[in-house]
Amino acid sequence: MEYLLVHFSRSRRVVVDDIFSGRTEEIIELEAGAHIVALGPPCNFTPPSIKIVLRDTSPLTPMEVTFDPV
């Protein structure tokens, strides 16, 4: 299991590979490998999505990605 932490200025749904997977500012558990991460609507953030490769993470050292408000 791998771990991801998504940052955004407000609480939002996190969509990984087109599936709701958690919320911003909460650690999300995912399978290792390549994923596409986005936020749920409204689409007032940039970039539209982020491609990541998860490996060698832990609950204390998750991969972190940030979306910025538009």
Count of strand segments: 9
- Order of strands in the sheet with most strands: 3-2-5-7
By helix and strand content, what is the structural category?
mainly beta
Per DSSP, what share of the residues sits in E-state strands of 2 or more residues? over 45%
Element-by-element helix/strand order: EEEEEEEEE
Low-confidence stretches: none
pLDDT averaged over residues: 97
Euclidean distance between termini CA atoms: 32 Å
Largest sheet, if any? 4 strands, antiparallel
Radius of gyration: 11 Å
Helix content percent band: under 10%
- Shape descriptor: globular
Alpha plus pi helix count: 0
Tell me about this structure.
This protein has 70 residues and is an all-beta fold. The chain is 0% helix and 56% strand. The strands form three sheets. The chain has a four-stranded antiparallel β-sheet, with no helix packed on it. Strands 4-1-8 form a three-stranded mixed β-sheet, with no helix packed on it. Strands 6-9 form a two-stranded antiparallel ribbon. It is globular.
